Structures are given as C-alpha cells and as structure tokens.
What does this fold into?
Amino acid sequence: MKKLIYITTFLLTSGMVMAQNYGALDNLKNTSETVVTSEMFSLIANIEIDSDDKEFNEIKSIIDNLTELRVYSTDNPTSAATLNSFATKYISSNNLVKLMHVKEDGQMFTFHMRKGSSDKKVRNLVMLINDTDGDDKDTVFLIISGDIDLKQISKLTKMLNVPGQKQIEDATN
It folds into this structure.
C-alpha cells in the first residue's frame, strides 16, 4: 500500500512540475504576447486542401505536430527582468537541455530543448533573446511545443515571422 501511495504522489507532483502557470506573464506591462493553442493547430490540421505545393505540404506537416506556440517580447526593463526570471524557472523546472547560445549584434540568443519521439525531433524548443548592449532591454521568450522535426523549425518560424528567426535557422541547419 505504501508503494502505491509513493507512486501516486510521485506521479501527481511530477505532473504539477510539468504544468506551467503562465499567469505571471498575463498582465506584464509593455509586453506583447502571442499564444497559439493546440485547438487552433487542430483546426488548421483538419483543413483538407489537396495541394501539389511541396512547401505547403511540409508546413502543414509541421503544424499537424504542434501543440502550442508562445512568444513574449518586451523592451521594458522591469518587464524584461520578470520575463527573464520566468524563462529561467521554466527552463529549470522542465529540465530542458541547452543546445547552444549565440552572441551577435548586441544580443544573446539561447536555445534549450526537450527530446521528442526520436533523436531528430524535439518536444519543446525554447529560445530566449536578451539585449547585451546599452540600456535597451529587448527580451523575447519563445516556446514551441509538439513533436517537431528540428529541420522544419526554421520554416515554421520564418512563416510566423518569429523574432530571432535567422538564429533559429542557423541553429537547426
């Protein structure tokens, strides 16, 4: 009986750790937020369009495997600090692995991920962009969730015009 209680407790607490409360970012001043939910991706995936366009079919294939996309950005120093703190906690609590970081043009791009269903796929890709020069505190926090082929992420971010798209393309090619 004790074993059953321990296992149940472990499963419940591990589920709570994985679930994220984005409420801390909901009312963050001077911050833009874009959230595309699994419901929206499901609607798009269910659209039946017979197309011979290879690029369109690749993008549809990517969308079929997405569950969520979140992009938060700000140039407000106070909001940037809150966003950075949240991103650090998110990365830590989800045990994401650092893929790489790039310092370029006064910005630091950091990429983290959680493995997906195979070695070529990721379940979560997180990118954090921070300004490293001057007083400007531009910060972008991007989370892509699903079962995503790394080779196709740059196509998706280009299509969605996500900040840091060039760095994502460089990181995944």
